[in-house]
Amino acid sequence: KNEVEQSPQNLTAQEGEFITINCSYSVGISALHWLQQHPGGGIVSLFMLSSGKKKHGRLIATINIQEKHSSLHITASHPRDSAVYICAASRPRDTDKLIFGTGTRLQVFP
Amino acid sequence: EAEVAQSPRYKITEKSQAVAFWCDPISGHATLYWYRQILGQGPELLVQFQDESVVDDSQLPKDRFSAERLKGVDSTLKIQPAELGDSAMYLCASSSSGSKGETQYFGPGTRLLVL
What is the Cα–Cα distance from B105 to A33, expressed in whole angstroms? Predict the structure, then answer.
């Protein structure tokens, strides 16, 4: 079993829909990262959080440390949000190493 | 805005040939990472440098892969000989100091196809 698991693996939505991507982890972490990977391959860091909730534009990330679960929400989704969203955990003793989930492929249709 | 540069963006080679990828991290970033990402999976760390020193290469297949960062700035990842299973995206990332889970900045990647 992977230490970081995401669901769903694939997600399609109509423009304007509210989207939720889930991430569960089985290890102790110092931080949980959400990353976005566009079809060209480049990866952009969206959030790094260790507690509570962070918001940037239409993106919201939450984490529940007790339940070892994090969610990424996209409000008013747009076709340009289409990408692979990856969650990754950094461990307390190896804070510079990321344990990656397998990603969620999101397609938003007009 | 400063970016991590990688080249080439795409590489097609035949098995048993040698390939090399280059990465130039964001200026001033001491930590550099090479990842391999197989289609449909998350990135897997191959090697991590702190300045010019390797701090983790436990997942690097050392019989065919090598990496160097001679002056602690740009880095080269080499595969010799390439095998069919090496087809993947090779991502380079850098961070300022590699501590406290700080943000890693990724390059655009090199997509390798081994025929």
Answer: 12
